[in-house]
Amino acid sequence: MxxxxxxxxxxxxxxxxxxxxxxxxxxxRIGLTFSSYNRIRDLVIRLDARGAASVADLRRVAWGVAxxxxxxxxxxxxxxxxxxxxxxxxxxxASNIRIGIERDTGAEFRxxxxxxxxxxxxxxxxxxxxxxxxxxGQ
Length: 138
Known about the structure:
The protein has 138 residues and is of the alpha+beta class.
């Protein structure tokens, strides 16, 4: 109930952006279910994104994707990173997806993905405790 009351306080542009984020996160989630990461990523990097995003744009994308991910079942960190990268690329802003594995987990293997833009973590939380494997940029 609390989330619905928050939804009513959003402006029309915020509502439209949230709906757009929801559609993108859902499409990426479905794409990753029925296709490969590389194929979905290839669709994203076709967009010519070379500019730097403003802090406000990064926060907006982080908010929209995180909110949409709470609604879309199974929206993993990779789903969120790809969706955020797409949203930033649509506005011409470059970003990277960083893949890492958690250190000292014993026999259990845990991977994580972050969205990085302008040397800032947009989505994914802290990188502390993870070993860097790869960056996939545009």
